[in-house]
Design brief:
Radius of gyration of chain E: 21 Å
Strand content of chain E: 5-15%
Number of helices of chain E: 14
CATH topology of chain E: Cytochrome-c3 Hydrogenase, chain B
Distance between the termini of chain E: 35 Å
CATH topology of the largest domain in chain B: Beta Polymerase, domain 2
CATH superfamily of chain E: Cytochrome-c3 Hydrogenase, chain B
Oligomer: heteropentamer
Shape of chain B: elongated
Number of domains of chain B: 2
Structural class of chain B: alpha+beta
Shape of chain E: globular
CATH class of chain E: Mainly Alpha
Number of strands of chain B: 5
Chains: A mainly alpha (about 625), B alpha+beta (about 190), C alpha/beta (about 180), D mainly alpha (about 325), E alpha+beta (about 375)
CATH superfamily of the largest domain in chain B: NADH:ubiquinone oxidoreductase Nqo5 subunit
Helix content of chain E: 40-55%
Helix content of chain B: 25-40%
Largest sheet of chain E: 3 strands, antiparallel
Order of helices and strands of chain E: EEEHHHHHEEHHHHHHEEEHHH
Chain lengths: ~625, ~190, ~180, ~325, ~375
């Protein structure tokens, strides 16, 4: 049997199996999921050959399965993160109901992503895309009424994306007569001259998943409302499917358009870049006023995706490389951070940063993961996050001449320090109060995936070349020739370098020297005291007083940046939505908020389009 | 005294409105003696009708011989420029007085102090229990029968030479063995 | 070759020199003597010449300057602040009130002898002591430090029981964290 | 590697130089401040005595692991940045590694220390520290904008992101960047006011409400180590400015001892003059509130920075 | 036990930003104060109880220590209350000397205010200058009374010592110097944009509530109400001197600062006039043996204008050689508790020390 079909089959049977096992022994449902993903990963990395293509036809439509160097990057990302997340999920979801529902959808969404990676034609691409969307939607509304509104938002935006994508696909078939992606590209579907709307429609479809402004509205709520073990994948991997598509389309647009510097290409580049930049800024400044750690991370994800899109929009070698590198690193650290949030949620019961503080001594490993991931997120040397940020800046400054975008990105990135600190401070630092005395460290199966992700971040900081290798090959597939990379030296086009080996060596040596000096010096006289022993001006606080600074942490910044907070994109969409709700009351009967109805609706639409495709789009 | 028309007029208006006694002390000084229950009425009247909008101060005197506390409310009219003293005497046993912090917000502070220092209760008084003292479990200290010197000698360590709180000159001369000169004795604090 | 004893002497000398030349004074005006501290720190008297400067929190301070009488309520805070300071720490009693109660000897709310509650290195007498006497008190403290005689943090730690008994006699509602260093 | 020994020697030499100069500048500023305030002032070496005293404190209190680590982070950031900026242009005695790290790296590395400090302050659990950190981070977003704008202007004007290159270019052409792109220089100068945290931008540790802000709970060896880090950072910022805008110091063609000393002298004169700008400004100004400080940076300095970038593009 | 949402900040007692030994407990949300409560008593020395143990003149040693930054108005107010009880006349020369001493005390207190107001906003240079220059006034006091801070100079019936012509010259010279220096201070403080930004619109005392809350002195004049004991109820020889009582509109820190800036000038002018107009004559009305001095039975209320506002003494005598009851009410009594608690909510924590300095909160005056 073909390895691709086998993998898909394993996924589907795993989904069914975990659903059934939950009825018998709920405990093993999670383990089944983990085993399924482990088996698939094993099969994928041992059996699948890169650039092998399987052709088959379904209902008279030619279809292709296969993996190329470009999608291979995403395969590593998806499977690796899913494996860790499913391991994490076993204990995390332990005490919840409806585990079968959760796990089968969990597997299905991964199946969708892997399917997208395999698909080399638009039909299977779209089908798997929808599988991914539906199953993730079902997980978003897993919590029931509490999350139904965010689920509705997610569904509506996904529907917009799906229709945009479908329109583009059908038009490609109509105009170029093929569903095979590579053929369509070769036929000039993305040359951005005759059918400009095709790539744009596709980009809109992908941008919804990649949470690009103004289509990001669903993301913060959907990310924070679904279970954290899934959000790790949702934000880490699933959003990267949008990046995958965008990367493909943009690379083709840039390389296939007749004149690379044609006016409309430039416009597209600028618009995408600025949209990405504005996404990054707005999401960042909204992230830093959040009080819920999950929501903070969700907004932060949107911001990080903004950077990636900026990188992709440049279309230059360093820019795309930065984008792909950031995509992987973002999956790693955001996966780790959502797992941290999940661990805290499981052990403490909440992730509201105004309610908890001082977990550092209770959950040291979780804190370690959070610290490393936050350093990577903030882009501070020497971790992997810095490598990505460095390449992005260098690309913008040296190659794309988009100088003011640099400032926008830098503003967002500096402001990111603020919410990074807010996250660490809110959960782990501050007073150790009585309320958290009972808290213990998360179970081992939750610690292991987190720490592995943290270690990956450290290793990629020292040897970013590990990731450069697949990325360079993937970029060659996209049409970039001579992609240079070095194991631990970053070079820009002007020849300046940042040598991670030197940097890490210096940091390491200084760290060891100073740490030993500071620890050993006067060791006898050094005392570690609790957080209650602080100077409160000589007074002794009473029991119920709160000594941790939690509310409105960045109030001065909010006041300084008040104009930016004035008009929220959410509000615009809400107003729009309310208006639409009032006008199209009948749509509410179709959009009942029930997943199945939605699924049925999409299928009916798809079938209708396929039936009438010849009459509609013959030219 | 012809210049005291203003003051006399004020006294007249007060005595006609309430059945109280009072007198003009000198220029800018008028005092009235009121019953405990009438005080808040008088104060409110003075504030609303006569323009005495400023509570200059409020204090308490412990008349231990009479077994009474005297409460004095001093109010000031910025327009007339007259001080009005409203005085009332209350029983020393289980003293209780009407709370006037609804008339003047700042009265709260005075009342807290008087509650702590004299033990007079003001029902409905909000605010911190302690004003100046912390964990005080003795008699309210400003009462005349509280002996602060005795308390201090019992509670605090007294440095040798200071334990009897004698005149310094006597102590020095005692220590050095010389006699206290007569002129020094004359001015000794201990009588 | 310098033997261990001599080298220890040199090290001690250097350490004590640094300690005496850099006195961070706890910014805690406990009583009315606080009014002469600004004068001491400013142009005419300029205590910074001697390395004396203010420190905002007890963790950074070396010298606790008790500027005058101590009400019992303040004494509790002073003990708390003193215990939070890091050794070596010094206490200067400033004004007659810290020595024998001064003119408040019969007050029910002020203590009369500071060294009963926290160890005192140097007393400065007078009410109020002039900035010159404050500086001379500091110079005296510097001499003590250089000679290695000012180590009252240790004294406090070793005689904690005695000090605690004295303190608890006055502070009735004892709700203080433990002193553990 | 035969030059490894030289590199290590150079690194140690650079660190010692940065530390000494930073501390001495701090002492001189204290002295000068005293003179402005009609006082005699402490000796110029007072900071060394303070540091020594802090290091020989007999007890040291830490509020946990991050509290213990905070000074370490600051020193890491300080020393690493110091080693990656050129002290003297092309001098063998200071074999810096600025070829191996460029401006973007330096920008981010400088934040490393602040974040470590913030984490240590956060673990102490003192609300004053947390408020100080909140103010510090907010203010950082303020002054980083004009600073980065001025750096971007330089980078695109000379098509290089390396400090070494920028210095070399100034050395070769003989025209300081402060003259070739005055707007960028001014933007960076305004930003430097915020960086040095003198008045009016010292709200982070404003004693009037926060005691000593983020360092409220640090004393003894921790505070001492932080002080050393701060001193090195002061030197770093000054040296970076000098090399970016004021023509740098040192002659790559002549690396003899006399030339080295001469270069050092030039460096010291330039850095000290530059240091006087925020210090002077601090003497005569009260402090801004946080939001006022941020808005200050986002007005004229940012406008100057944007003009600087446009100037760089069209020149 | 439910933990509060707002962070608790302890501003004092051990805090560099607090104006003396007191505590303002703040509940903050973000950097905005939600609730502020003043806690006093750290300086409670039981003055009023102790004075009852001393005789009429011994009380002066305690009195001047009521409020440290400005002890002389305390002496004067008490002396005037006792004079009223004892029907004691004060020679005119003594009255002039008292006015000079009062105004000198006011000046030195203003210089402390300059330091506090500027220092709490981070302008330390001005604080160093003005506190340094304050020593010149303290020198004058020292020469006149023997004490730098506490003088015990004003006694019932006059003053303790006569002034000499050389002292008068020194005072005039010092006034010239201070007048020049005040220009420097003002240039550094009032001409500074940042100071203006910080001070304008912050810590507003509402005009309609001001008198009810017990606001007196410069803060009351800062809301535009012309109220000063020196003109409302002239004491000593203030009615013979020509001076202005400045007011300003707005009730914010800036208005209060403007009032004080002008009052500084007025004080210098008053001192000059008083020295010029001072007649020859006795400086002291002899009392009988101070140890046996019996003051007739009665109650008296006297008030004077100190730098923070009106200070009143209520003195009760039962016809013995000791006061029966002395009650002092300083301006800070209301400023430090009621007014502060009312105006702090909604303010930025960066401004609290600034506001306290501007209101002239002086804790020893509150709890005594």
């Amino acid at each position: 049997m073909n390895i691709f079909f086998l993998i898909i089959l394993i996924f589907f049977s795993g989904a069914i199996l975990s659903f059934i096992i939950n009825r018998i022994a709920p405990k093993f449902s999670g383990i089944t999921t983990f085993v399924t993903i482990a088996v698939v990963s094993f099969l994928f990395f041992t059996q699948v050959e890169i650039n092998s293509i399987t052709q088959f036809s379904l209902g008279g439509i030619q279809m292709q399965f296969g993996v190329n160097n470009y999608t291979y990057i995403f395969a590593i990302l998806v499977l690796g993160l899913s494996l860790l997340a499913s391991l994490f999920s076993i204990k995390y979801m332990q005490d919840n109901d409806r585990l079968g529902y959760f796990y089968s959808n969990f597997i299905l969404s991964i199946a969708g992503m892997v399917g997208i990676i395999f698909s080399r034609d638009f039909i299977s691409f779209f089908i798997f895309w929808e599988i991914m969307t539906w199953s993730s939607y079902l997980i978003v509304i897993y919590d029931g009424a509490r999350s139904s509104r965010s689920g509705l938002k997610y569904m509506i935006f996904s529907a917009i994306g799906a229709y945009a994508m479908l329109t583009a696909i059908v038009s490609i078939k109509g105009s170029y007569g093929t569903f095979i992606i590579s053929e369509a590209i070769e036929n000039g579907a993305f040359n951005f001259t005759d059918h400009i709307y095709i790539p744009i429609m596709l980009l809109v479809g992908f941008a919804v998943k990649a949470a690009l402004m103004p289509l990001h509205v669903w993301a913060p709520n959907a990310y924070s409302k679904s279970p954290m073990s899934f959000t790790a994948i949702f934000s880490g991997a699933m959003s990267k499917m949008g990046i995958l598509g965008m990367g493909l389309v943009l690379a083709s647009v840039y390389s296939h358009s007749t004149d690379e510097n044609a006016f409309n290409v430039l416009i597209l580049r600028q618009i995408l870049g600025w949209l990405g930049g504005i996404t990054a800024v707005m999401a960042t400044i909204y992230a830093l006023i959040q009080t819920d750690a999950k929501k903070l991370l969700a907004y932060s994800s949107v911001a990080q995706l903004g950077y990636i899109i900026v990188g992709l929009s440049t279309g230059t070698k360093l820019g795309v490389m930065a984008a792909l590198f950031l995509a992987i690193i973002h999956a790693v650290f955001k996966g780790a951070l959502f797992m941290v949030a999940g661990a805290v949620e499981r052990q403490v019961g909440t992730t509201d940063m105004t309610k908890i503080s001082g977990l550092i001594r209770k959950m040291p490993f979780t804190f370690f993961t959070a610290l490393v991931s936050i350093i990577a997120l903030a882009g501070i040397p020497p971790l992997g996050g810095f490598v990505g940020k460095w390449m992005l800046y260098e690309a913008l400054i040296t190659e794309s001449n988009n100088y003011f975008l640099v400032i926008v990105i830098f503003f967002s990135s500096t402001a990111a320090f603020m919410y990074s600190y807010r996250f660490l401070f809110g959960l782990f630092l501050g007073q150790e109060e009585k309320e958290i005395e009972h808290v213990k460290e998360a179970p081992v199966t939750m610690i292991i995936p987190m720490v592995i992700l943290a270690l990956i971040l450290i290793v990629t900081g020292v040897y970013p070349g590990i990731l450069f290798e697949p990325i360079a090959q993937g970029m060659q597939y996209l049409g970039y020739s001579d992609v240079n990379w070095d194991m631990s030296v970053l070079v820009n086009v002007w020849g300046e370098e940042s040598n991670m080996a030197y940097i890490n060596l210096t940091i390491g040596v200084v760290f060891v020297v100073i740490f030993i000096f500071l620890t050993l010096k006067n060791l006898k006289g050094t005392r570690y005291v609790g957080t209650k022993d602080i100077s409160t001006s000589g007074e002794i606080p009473t029991e119920n007083e709160n000594l941790t600074f939690q509310l409105d942490f960045f109030k001065p910044f909010q006041r300084a940046a008040a104009p930016l907070y004035k008009r929220s994109m959410d509000k615009i969409w809400n107003d729009l939505g309310n208006a639409l709700e009032a006008i199209f009351d009948f749509t509410r009967r179709i959009y009942t908020g029930n997943g199945q109805t939605y699924a049925l609706f999409v299928i009916i639409f798809l079938v209708i389009l396929l039936i009438f495709k010849n009459t509609l789009f013959t030219n | 005294m012809t210049e005291l028309i203003k003051e006399q007029h004020l006294l007249d208006s007060l005595t006609s409105a309430f059945k109280i006694k009072g007198r003009v002390i000198r220029d800018r000084r008028v005092e009235v003696f009121a019953d405990k229950k009438m005080v808040s009425g008088i104060l409110l009247f003075a504030k609303k009708q006569l323009g005495f909008i400023h509570l200059a101060h409020m204090t308490c005197i412990d008349w231990i011989d009479e077994n009474k506390f005297e409460l004095i409310y001093t109010i000031w009219s910025p327009i007339e420029k007259i001080h009005l003293f409203v005085k009332t005497k209350i029983e020393r046993e289980n003293p209780e007085m009407e709370n006037i912090d609804s008339i003047w917000d700042q009265a709260n502070t005075y009342e807290r102090e008087i509650r702590e220092m004299f033990g007079i209760q003001f029902p409905g008084l909000i605010g911190e229990q302690d004003f100046a003292l912390e964990d005080w479990d003795e008699m309210p200290p400003m009462r005349k029968d509280f002996d602060t010197k005795k308390y201090a000698l019992e509670t605090y360590y007294q440095r040798p030479g200071r334990e009897d709180a004698k005149d310094v000159r006597e102590t020095i001369s005692e220590r050095s063995g010389t006699k206290v000169p007569d002129f020094a004795k004359k001015y000794s604090r201990e009588k | 070759m310098i033997n261990d004893k001599d080298s220890q002497k040199i090290v001690d000398y250097i350490q004590n020199f640094a300690r005496k030349q850099s006195l961070f004074v706890m910014a805690y005006g406990t009583g009315c003597g606080a009014i002469e501290i600004p004068a001491t720190m400013t142009s005419r008297y300029d205590a910074e010449r001697f390395g004396i400067r203010g420190a905002a929190t007890p963790r950074q301070a070396d010298v606790l300057l008790i500027t005058g009488y101590l009400a019992t309520k303040t004494l509790k805070r002073v003990i708390r602040v003193y215990e939070q300071m890091q050794e070596p720490k010094y206490v200067i009693g400033f004004g007659s009130c810290t020595i024998n109660g001064g003119m408040y000897f019969d007050s029910y709310n002020t203590i009369n002898a500071l060294e009963q509650y926290i160890p005192v290195d140097v007393y400065i007498n007078g009410c109020m002591p002039r900035p010159e006497s404050v500086i001379s008190g500091f110079v005296k403290l510097q001499e003590l430090i250089q000679q290695g005689k000012a180590d009252n943090g240790k004294k406090y730690r070793e005689n904690l029981e005695w000090y605690r008994t004295n303190q608890k006699k006055i502070i009735k509602n004892w709700k203080m964290p433990d002193y553990n260093w | 590697m035969e030059d490894l020994g030289l590199k290590i020697f150079g690194a140690i030499l650079t660190t010692i130089l940065g530390f000494t100069v930073g501390m001495t500048y701090g002492g001189i500023v204290r002295k000068l401040t005293a003179r402005v305030q009609n006082r005699y002032g402490p000796p110029f070496y007072q900071n060394f005595l303070d540091l020594l005293k802090l290091q020989v404190k007999k007890t040291n209190i830490a509020h946990g692991f991050m509290g213990h680590m905070a000074p370490v982070w600051i020193i890491i950031a300080a020393v690493t940045v110091l080693l990656f900026i050129p002290i003297l242009n092309g001098n063998l005695w200071f074999p810096n590694m600025s070829f191996h790290g460029d401006l973007i790296f330096l920008l981010y590395m400088m934040v490393f220390g602040s974040l470590g400090m913030a984490l240590g302050a956060g673990q102490s659990g003192n609300p004053n520290s947390a408020i100080g950190v909140s103010r510090g981070l907010s203010q950082m977003v303020g002054f980083e904008i004009p600073f980065v704008l001025s750096l971007v202007a330089l980078m695109i004007q000379y098509e290089t992101t390396s400090v070494q290159e920028l210095t070399q270019i100034q050395h070769e052409t003989g025209v300081w960047n402060a003259i070739s792109n005055p707007f960028a220089f001014l933007a960076a100068l305004f930003a430097s006011l915020g960086m040095f945290r003198y008045s009016p931008f010292d709200i982070v540790g404003a004693p009037a409400e926060l005691a000593s802000g983020p360092v409220s709970e640090f004393g003894g060896k921790y505070l001492g180590t932080m002080m050393s880090g701060g001193a090195i950072f002061a030197f770093i910022k000054l040296t970076l400015y000098v090399h970016l805008f004021l023509g740098g110091a040192g002659n790559p063609d002549n690396t003899g001892i006399i030339a080295t000393l001469l270069g050092l002298g030039v460096l010291l004169i330039k850095t000290f003059t530059l240091y006087m700008v925020p210090v002077f400004y601090g003497w005569i100004n009260p402090r801004y509130r946080t939001e006022q400080a941020i808005q200050y940076f986002w007005r004229w300095p940012t406008a100057l920075g944007i003009i600087g970038v446009i100037w760089a593009v069209y020149s | 036990m439910i933990r509060e949402k707002e962070t608790t900040l302890y501003l004092g007692p051990q805090h560099p930003g607090i104006t003396g030994n007191m505590m303002v407990k703040l509940k903050v949300q973000g950097d905005t104060v939600v609730k502020a409560t003043t806690h006093v008593g750290y300086l409670h020395r039981a003055f009023e109880k102790l004075i009852e143990q001393r005789n009429w003149l011994n009380a002066f040693t305690l009195l001047c220590r009521f409020c440290v930054p400005e002890p002389d108005p305390m002496e004067l107010t008490y002396a005037r209350a006792v004079e009223e009880l004892d029907n004691r006349e004060v020679p005119e020369r003594a009255q002039y000397i008292r006015v000079i001493v009062m105004e000198l005390a006011r000046l030195q207190s203003f210089m402390l205010w300059y330091a506090g107001q500027a220092g709490s906003a981070g302008l330390y240079t001005l604080g160093q200058w003005s506190v340094g220059d304050r020593n010149y006034i303290l020198d004058l006091f020292e020469e006149l009374t023997g004490g730098r801070i506490y003088h015990m100079y004003i006694w019932p019936g006059g003053v303790r010592r006569d002034v000499t012509d050389t002292w008068k010259d020194k005072v005039l010279k010092t006034m010239d110097y201070l007048e020049k220096r005040q220009d420097d201070y003002n240039q550094l403080m009032f001409d500074n944009t940042i100071f203006q930004k910080r001070a304008k619109g912050v810590g507003i005392v509402p005009k309609d509530k001001a008198i009810e809350w017990g606001v007196v002195g410069p803060p009351l004049r800062g809301v535009g109400i012309k109220s000063d004991v020196r003109i409302d109820e002239p004491y000593e020889v203030y009615d013979k001197l020509d001076f202005e009582v400045p007011t300003a509109e707005g009730g914010d820190i800036w208005a209060r600062a403007l009032v004080r800036k002008e009052e500084f000038r007025q004080s210098i002018s008053i001192i000059r006039q008083a020295i010029e107009k001072m007649p020859k004559g006795d400086y002291y009305n002899k009392v009988p043996n101070p140890m046996k001095w019996v003051v007739p039975e009665g109650q008296a209320w006297a008030k004077t204008e100190s730098v923070r506002g009106e200070i009143g003494f209520y003195v009760v005598s039962n016809g013995t050689n000791k006061p029966y009851r002395v009650h002092a009410k300083g301006a800070a009594y209301t400023h430090g508790v009621t007014v502060l608690e009312k105006i702090l909510p909604g303010q930025n924590i960066a401004d609290i020390s600034f506001i306290m300095n501007s209101l002239g909160v002086c804790p020893p005056e509150i709890e005594r």
